[in-house]
Amino acid sequence: MAHRKLVIKVTAGADAPERCSQAFTVASVAAASGTEVSLWLTGESAWFALPGRAAEFELPHAAPLPDLMAAIQASGRITLCTQCAARRDIEEKDVLDGVRIAGAQLFVSEIMAEDVQALVY
């Protein structure tokens, strides 16, 4: 089977909890299945790059966000959008270990690579 990568851009946070949870759930299931995953935090999901913020997220009948993030980070990558971070005064020193801050150039590079599927939530 060909190597595949899944790039997911999540724009929703606590403002749209079901959409947010769905993005993290799909990313974690893909990572657990052996798919290379790159999850991009943009818009209101940018807050989840900060320590403790994922633990504050609540949605009945959904897996805890910190658990989903740990599953993604175990074999994938979480990236915080540069502009989204700047708009929220978030800097590299503020984010969780393993979360990088990067911009549109890298996002486009990832989604344009061969054998990549991209989703936006």
From TrEMBL:
UniProt xrefs under Gene3D superfamilies: DsrEFH-like
Pfam families registered for this protein in UniProt: DsrE (PF02635)
Highest rank taxon of the organism: Bacteria
UniProt-recorded name of the protein: Predicted peroxiredoxin
Organism: Streptomyces qinglanensis
